[in-house]
Amino acid sequence: MSEARTPAQIEADIVRRREQLAVTLDEIGIRVHPKTIIGDAKAKVASTVDQTAGRAFVAVNRVVSDVKARFTHEDGAPRLERVVPVALVAVAVVGLIVSSSRKSKG
């Protein structure tokens, strides 16, 4: 069986509990404060954007590497058998666009 507590012990417990409750209420006040909520939301969005941008960078880098590998040899020299046809198609498309824009203006 526990010993009977003295009034001083009970009072000390009450003071200690009151201090703990004050700290807890302060923490709750900080957590639910609009600035804290907005800050947390901003941090979450920034993290998501950073992750998305990182994934996009990796994906673009992979595509660029794949395209480069298709149009160059391992030593870095261009594969003319692949570059020339693509260049001709690009020139033809640009020519059609220029020709089309001249016709629409005239």
Output the keywords.
106 residues; mainly alpha
Please characterize this protein's 3D structure.
It is a single chain. This protein has 106 residues and is mostly helical. It has a domain at 79-106. It is 85% helix and 0% strand. The chain contains 3 helices and no strands. The chain has helices spanning 7-32, 34-71, 80-105. The longest helix has 38 residues, at 34-71. It starts with 6 loop residues before the first helix and ends with a helix.
What's the gyration radius in Å?
A: 35 Å
Unreliable stretches: none
- Summed over residues and divided by their number, the pLDDT gives a mean of 91
Number of strands: 0
- H/E topology pattern: HHH
Q: What share of residues are in beta strands? A: under 5%
* Helicity level: over 70%
Shape: elongated
Taking the sheet with the most strands, its summary is: none
Give a quick rundown of the structure:
With 106 residues, the chain is an all-alpha fold. It has helices at 7-32, 34-71, 80-105. The longest helix has 38 residues, at 34-71.
List the helices and strands and how they pair.
Blueprint: H1 7-32, H2 34-71, H3 80-105
